[in-house]
UniProtKB/TrEMBL annotation:
GO cellular-component term (any): membrane
Protein keywords: Acyltransferase, Membrane, Transferase, Transmembrane, Transmembrane helix
Organism: Takifugu bimaculatus
EC number: 2.3.1.225
Catalytic activity: L-cysteinyl-[protein] + hexadecanoyl-CoA = S-hexadecanoyl-L-cysteinyl-[protein] + CoA
Protein's name according to its UniProt entry: Palmitoyltransferase
Domains: entry comment: The DHHC domain is required for palmitoyltransferase activity.
Tagged with keyword Cytoplasm: no
The keyword Transferase belongs to this UniProt entry's keyword annotation: yes
Localization of this protein: Membrane
């Protein structure tokens, strides 16, 4: 399956994505320059810490870009409906097109999305069947990078040895606001917000309920059967290989034999 790009023309969404990229850029540029590289050069931290920080930063950026530009599961204007699945399709009363059940019409994007969870302004895209796994990755890697940044900010002032090649008084005067307060505040807000969002998304996946269905108090015995957490995540990520669940630079295929295994539409 080719990587299909999907862009939403929404200035407010672009602004939100720009703010997220700004936070990522700040922590990726300033934290290494002020903490990682100086302490690594003086032997206070191993090179593995530097590599792990940049790996977390790169995976976070990749997940953000993929989640923002990946097709969430947009339905075409004239979908091919197999005869055996016609009973599971319905007519959208907003765009007057046929769509599978559990699809939803996004008023911001102007089209229906298969198994739509919600529209997220922070990625300027819908979260649906085909990019839900990328959104879950984004939440996970943002938590990881934010926690890493918090630990580095804490260690800079309470654990790391003083830098012998730097005037500590001048450093504290020039960089205290930039490093300790602003960086730690952003990391704390991102970690707290993403932790709650990640928990909400994970519980929704395990219970097979989207955010829209939760808000509408959706109840249907067809979607309430218990499943193992491995199968639930494998179905969302499109593969049973657990290592691939953490890699954003790949395409997703519907899981063979899964409940939402679909024909090409």
């Amino acid at each position: 399956m080719k990587l299909r790009l999907h862009f939403v023309v929404d200035p407010m969404g672009w602004l939100c994505v720009s703010l997220v990229l700004g936070v990522w850029f700040y922590n990726t540029i300033f934290v290494p320059q002020l903490v990682l590289f100086p302490h690594y050069s003086e032997g206070h931290i191993p090179w593995t810490v530097v590599v792990c920080y940049y790996a977390a930063s790169a995976l976070c950026l990749a997940a953000l870009l993929r989640a923002s530009t990946a097709d969430p599961g947009r339905l075409p204007a004239e979908p091919h409906i197999p005869q055996s699945e016609r009973q599971h399709w319905e007519l959208c009363n907003k765009c007057n097109l046929m769509r599978p059940k559990r699809s939803h019409h996004c008023s911001r994007c102007g089209h229906c999305v298969r198994r739509m969870d919600h529209h997220c302004p922070w990625i300027n895209n819908c979260v649906g069947e085909d990019n839900h796994w990328l959104f879950l990755q984004l939440c996970f890697y943002t938590q990881l990078l934010s926690l890493f940044t918090l630990l580095l900010d804490f260690c800079q002032y309470y654990y790391f040895l003083p830098l012998t090649r730097l005037d500590q008084e001048r450093f504290a005067t020039r960089h205290e606001l930039a490093l300790l307060r602003l960086s730690a505040l952003m990391a704390l807000l991102m970690f707290g917000g993403m932790s709650g969002l990640f928990y909400t998304q994970l519980t929704g996946i395990l219970s097979d309920t989207t955010t829209i269905e939760k808000m509408a108090h959706f109840s249907n015995e067809m979607f309430t059967s218990k499943r193992s957490w491995q199968f639930a995540l494998a179905e969302v990520c499109g593969t049973r290989w657990k290592l691939l669940w953490f890699l954003p630079l790949r395409s997703r295929q519907p899981l063979q034999g899964g409940r939402y295994s679909r024909a090409h539409v």
